[in-house]
Design goal:
alpha+beta, 18 strands, single chain, 4-stranded mixed sheet
Length: 528
């Protein structure tokens, strides 16, 4: 699968550059901020960076994106627990040769049975997983078979070149057969460079070096400790005071970077696209939002440029379901996006149309539709929700904010127990199969708005089987346009965010098209 030539605009903001050390040093504890309580330690059951960032280093995948590259692409996939892989001639079987001598953290050997157990669990109708947000990723997977302890084959219903890309994502770790899903939520066992030590609500997550890690000499760190500090200002002040080595990823907004430059002149910060998008969730199964006219009026109220200027200082990208170029591989280019209804520059005209629709339904400025806007109770969700409420007012919709703690938020979304939501959707890997099937496929666990269009799903399948990248990209643009014009899940903006670390923290490398896949920390070391 060829990697399209795209420029990487990473907006690297180096506040100060520390001299490079000649050799890695071993030892020390890396101290990182965390923005809230992880809902659990089980990556397969969660859909948030709150779980992935602290726990990716506990696990391994079959394959992974090369952590030294700046853009996650199919051409940048390297071995992890698998040493090599091969597609069958018909594109329906992908066979992995597995690494020998790998042990789980409890000393038991890793084998092909663990690979089979993991994906049997993910695709099962009656899964042992309490939540299964990525079942839809693997809808095309019929079964996994093994050939001895060191070979596993993934059998597909039809060709799907993106399977390898999905397996490289941090959301696709291998789990141990012999450990219960219940334990994996609170005391996970992996094969990764760090072992789980403890997780205390509202306090910390602690990991320790795995002395038996299968990569000789790794990791360099003795431990990683995450301090849970929900208040963003407090978290940044703690970093400035030197009590933390690293901020939680993307919590530093573009507007905050200049302040950090003054307060922590030796810090290093990078601001880049997060491949997270703010989107409007409308529960189309709940009255009165089962009326497409109300959903359209809500979409017409949006001023995407206002979100960008207020929250992103003009740095955010405007686009559809896929991350816009040049960082994104599949997003609609500017000239194509201009053809999408609702993305035009005349916001006043759109809102006038929205008010007319609402008036026809009996809602006026004197008699508005009263609703609640539910959102996750962290700044990156609350801030756009407040702006959304102001925009909805322009089409005679009066809304109150309902902030929810992280675990409650995700449980409510899974149960569809909301009317209107402001969501920040994280995309685990920049690929249309991930975005389309996870977000818009009929019956998907993460299709929070219950959008269902069988004709559009046929196009999902068509693009999924294509090996001609240029042709696939053009079809993906057409699908994305259709989703936006259908109001399937209106995208407001694609966010940027900053991650900062002290100059003595070495070998940190972030990607420009994801925040999810670079937290193994096995190569990171402390120069102190």
């Amino acid at each position: 699968m060829a990697n399209p030539t795209l420029p990487l605009v990473a907006a690297i903001l180096a506040l100060s550059a520390a001299p490079a050390a000649w050799a890695q040093k071993s030892g020390g504890t890396l101290k990182i901020a965390h923005m809230d309580n992880p809902p659990s330690a089980s990556i397969h059951e969660e859909a948030t960076i709150s779980t992935v960032m602290p726990f990716m280093s506990v696990y391994n995948n079959l394959v992974m994106f090369d952590p030294k590259t700046k853009q996650n692409t199919p051409d940048n996939i390297i071995p992890d627990l698998a040493t090599e892989w091969k597609w069958s001639d018909d594109g329906r079987q992908l066979t992995f040769k597995l690494r020998d001598g790998v042990k789980w953290h409890d000393g038991k050997p890793f084998t092909s049975a663990d690979v089979k157990c993991t994906w049997d669990m993910v695709i099962a109708d009656e899964s042992k997983l309490r939540k299964n947000p990525r079942k839809t990723w693997y809808f095309n997977l019929k079964q996994v078979t093994v050939n001895g302890d060191r070979e596993a084959t993934f059998h597909l219903e039809r060709p799907q070149p993106s399977l390898l890309t999905m397996l490289a994502a941090a959301f696709s770790p291998v789990y141990p057969c012999h450990v219960s899903t219940q334990q994996m939520r609170t005391r996970p066992i992996g094969t990764g460079p760090f072992k789980f030590v403890e997780m205390k609500q509202n306090e910390s997550v602690k990991l320790a070096r795995n002395p038996d890690y299968w990569k000789p000499g790794r990791p360099y760190l003795d431990a990683i400790e995450y301090s849970i500090i929900p208040n963003r200002a407090t978290s940044l002040l703690t970093f400035v005071a030197g009590k933390l080595d690293m901020t939680f990823t993307t919590v530093v907004t573009p507007a905050m970077i200049s302040d950090l430059k003054v307060q922590a002149p030796t810090a290093i910060c990078e601001a880049q696209p997060t491949n997270t998008q703010a989107n409007l969730l409308v529960n189309r199964d709940r009255a009165p939002f089962d009326d497409a006219r109300i959903r359209r009026a809500m979409a017409l109220s949006l001023d995407r440029n206002a979100f960008n200027e207020i929250l992103g200082q003009g740095n955010y990208r405007i686009g559809g379901a896929m991350l816009p170029p040049p960082e994104g591989l599949w997003g609609m280019p500017t000239e194509f996006l201009a053809t999408v209804a609702g993305y035009g520059p005349d916001v006043a005209k759109s809102r006038e149309e929205g008010r007319k629709i609402m008036a026809e339904l009996g809602y006026t400025a004197e008699k508005p539709l009263k609703i609640k806007v539910s959102t996750r109770n962290i700044p990156s969700y609350r801030d756009p929700a407040v702006i959304l409420i102001d925009h909805l007012k322009q089409v005679n919709i009066q809304a109150d904010l309902e902030p929810l703690e992280t675990a409650v938020w995700y449980n409510r979304m899974m149960r569809r127990d909301f009317a209107i939501g402001m969501n920040i959707q994280g995309v685990g890997v920049d690929d249309p199969d991930v975005v389309f099937y996870e977000t818009f496929r009929c019956g998907s666990e993460r299709n929070y708005t219950n959008y269902c269009n069988p004709e559009v799903e046929k196009l999902f399948d068509q693009q999924s089987m294509m090996t001609d990248i240029a042709a696939r990209r053009k079809l993906v643009w057409e699908i994305d346009k259709k989703l936006q014009e259908d109001g399937a899940r209106p995208v407001i903006q694609h966010g940027w965010g900053g991650t900062c670390w002290r100059p003595e923290v070495k070998a940190v490398n972030l990607a420009v098209n994801t925040i999810y896949n670079h937290w193994r920390f096995e190569d990171v070391w402390l120069d102190r």
